[in-house]
Design a protein that fits this description.
Elements lengths: L26 E5 L6 E5 L12 E5 L1 E3 L3 E6 L5 E9 L4 E7 L9 E4 L11 E8 L5 E7 L3 H8 L25 E4 L11 H9 L3 E7 L22 E5 L1 H12 L4 E4 L1 H9 L1 E3 L5 E3 L2 E5 L14 E5 L6 H10 L1 H13 L10 E4 L1
Length: 352
């Protein structure tokens, strides 16, 4: 299976640069994964596709202002870093640019008004170089790291978004709770608190998982053969209550519908065989490198709400594994013809 099998042509003007004023007013495409039939709707009507007893699985991770700009002590050369994975209270694995000038032992000053360490609210020292050339950086600061980060950091918008985000909260879901992501679980951006309350009032369960979205979001597939692609590890948590809800939903004959590919990868990573041989969701936490592409054996997910993803991305491959590559690429071609908005701040698709 070739990476090029998942290419589609997208006019640049269809890449959404700004979130809509009303989160739930985006367009919604319904894709039938069996027939490939496509219909068009508005996201506010997503409730019409859900039935009492169904369960929505949502990822409650919270994007932090993980992009920092600083200077190298001594030379004052500019440095940009992206916090990826917290290794300890003061140490993070980071993506660093320019990497060639940031060797082990380099000190980086963030927020220093005069380029001197004594007036600097945040200082980082590169202590190691790890996989993919990422750096381990140990930080020094006074007070609480999250508060320092909030004052100095920027939201790590993807490189295809060129507009400045005026309201940081718009790159987080309304149910974001647990700090740790370098990118948003974007399918969840369409939900408002009012819509979620309406969904619950209809008798639909909402179950929380956490998966901190990391470096994989920023890495394109660089190999020709899909089987040779390496996924980066991301940390996830499945609470006991969520496992109970999902397992009861499936046992009662209702559907488990994931909001976003991150929720999907979380529950599929935590699936285990029960005593009778059926798949169940286990309450657990850990690191996952799960890579889902056509040919994957689905264990728990029975429906998916997702955005429109980059050509040749692992996310297009995941959706194709669920709905069929031909159906997905045909639906994407229809979305282009109908001038849907694409990627993080774009429109949505429900595959059910």
């Amino acid at each position: 299976m070739k990476t090029s099998d998942f290419y589609y042509d997208l006019p640049e003007e269809l890449i959404a640069q700004d979130p809509l004023a009303d989160r739930s007013s985006s367009r919604l495409m319904h894709l039938d994964p069996v027939t490939g039939k496509v219909t068009h709707d508005t996201f506010k009507n997503v409730i019409n596709y859900l039935e009492p007893g169904d369960t929505l699985v949502i990822n409650d991770t919270k994007v932090i202002p993980a992009r920092l700009y600083g200077v190298r002590e001594g030379t004052l050369g500019k440095v940009e870093i992206l916090l990826l994975v917290r290794k300890s209270a003061d140490t993070w694995e980071c993506l660093v640019k320019p990497g060639k000038k940031c060797k082990v032992g380099t000190t980086i000053l963030f927020g220093s008004p005069d380029g001197k360490a004594e007036n600097c609210p945040l200082i980082g020292e590169i202590i190691d170089i790890v996989d993919e050339g990422n750096r381990l950086i140990r930080f020094r600061f006074d007070g609480i790291f999250e508060e320092v980060l909030d004052s100095l950091g920027e939201m790590p918008l993807p490189p295809y978004i060129h507009h400045k985000l005026e309201d940081r909260s718009r790159y987080n879901t309304v149910y974001a709770e647990h700090d740790g992501s370098a990118a948003a679980p974007t399918a969840g951006l369409h939900f408002t608190r009012e819509l979620l309350a309406e969904i619950e009032n209809k008798g639909i369960n909402i179950a929380h998982v956490t998966l901190h979205v990391g470096l994989g979001t920023f890495r394109p597939v660089k190999v020709d053969d899909v089987n040779n692609h390496h996924m980066h590890s991301e940390y996830y948590i499945v609470p006991e209550e969520t496992a109970r809800i999902v397992n009861e939903t499936r046992a009662s004959g209702h559907r488990v519908i994931c909001v976003g590919t991150t929720s999907c990868r979380t529950i599929e990573s935590a699936a285990e065989r029960s005593a009778d041989g059926s798949w169940i969701l286990a309450p657990k936490s850990g690191w996952t490198q799960i890579f889902i592409y056509p040919g994957y054996e689905w264990k728990l997910m029975q429906g998916l709400i997702t955005n429109f993803h980059l050509p040749e991305s692992t996310l297009v491959m995941l959706v194709s594994a669920f709905a069929g590559r031909e159906h997905v690429l045909s639906a994407y071609a229809e979305a282009v013809r109908e001038r849907y908005r694409f990627f993080s701040f774009g429109d949505a698709m429900i595959v059910l």
